[in-house]
Amino acid sequence: MFDLSFSNILHSNLFNFILLVVILYIVAAPFIKKSIQSANTKVSQTINDSVQRKEKALNNLEKTKEDYAKTPDETAEIGQIAKKTIDSLKIKSETDIETIKNFIKDNANKSILTETSKIKSKITKEVTEQSVDKALEKIKDKLSQDENLHDILIERAIEKLEKI
């Protein structure tokens, strides 16, 4: 059966295997412990980072939900501001248009008055010239018809001058 003598045990493979495992455990245990601790630390750190990122993402989600909830109110407020701006611009443009219209009307009236004055002056000058020409013609006709008329007129003029 089994021989459990010391030399048999010493030369058996099982004993050598167990001895090898014990020596490896004694030698490798600190390294394995460090590796396991390092891995545990990395896993813990990764979990903590994931938890922090999750919390951050949840906070961002909450802020986004709050912002989304505010969006209709903000849109309505922006719409009201835009309406007020449009109304104010409309009033200003109407005022500006009325001012420009009055300015153009005044300038047109001034231009019409100026042109009217020029035309009146020209017509008056032409009428005066024609009147003088007609009077000169009439005088020449009268003088040619009566030679003594000239002397009579000169005498009348001298009399009037003497009265002054």
Concise structural overview:
It is built from three helices and no strands.
What does this structure look like?
The chain is mainly alpha-helical and 164 residues long. It has one domain. Helices cover 94% and strands 0% of the residues. The chain has three helices and no strands. The longest helix has 133 residues, at 13-145. It is rod-shaped, with a radius of gyration of 63 Å.
The figure for the number of domains is: 1
Radius of gyration: 63 Å
Mean pLDDT equals: 86
Strand content: under 5%
What is the number of E strands? 0
Count of helices?
3
Write down the overall geometry. rod-shaped
Secondary structure topology:
Layout: H1 6-11, H2 13-145, H3 149-163
List keywords for this structure.
mainly alpha, 164 residues
